């Protein structure tokens, strides 16, 4: 099963549920697209320092191999090994870049895919953060609010001047 690390922005504020849509789930393991097209993969994930290191090492490797007058087969094997290293270390480069920025690692989750990892993480995370008293959460199983509960701010009785209905509806109590 794949292993995911969960990262959150450091400046999320005092409310722990404020930045949950910005959480990053980084899958550990081999990344095929980083192996096949490392340069494009680094640009797509905006890993600028890793991109700079990738370009510098690629150029330095090619220059060193050409100065040593290595044949094309050996160059291909060296660059294939470099691409293989990129595929295996792509997740580590993402985690390193996130840790350099304003991100912190929250948890490690084992799941079949990213959706299952998110589900497992948030189930565990909300249980730890006592989501019962969260003012931003909505109770999906509760009854809808009523207009005649005096404790609710929107339950004011309508004033007599507001009895008129605007639109194509008849006035209340009038026969057709």
From TrEMBL:
TM helices/strands, residue ranges: 32-60, 72-93
Keywords: Membrane, Transmembrane, Transmembrane helix
Pfam families assigned: DUF2628
Organism: Tardiphaga robiniae
Chain residue ranges for the region called Disordered: 133-176
InterPro entries: DUF2628
Protein name: DUF2628 domain-containing protein
Record's keyword annotation contains Transmembrane helix: yes
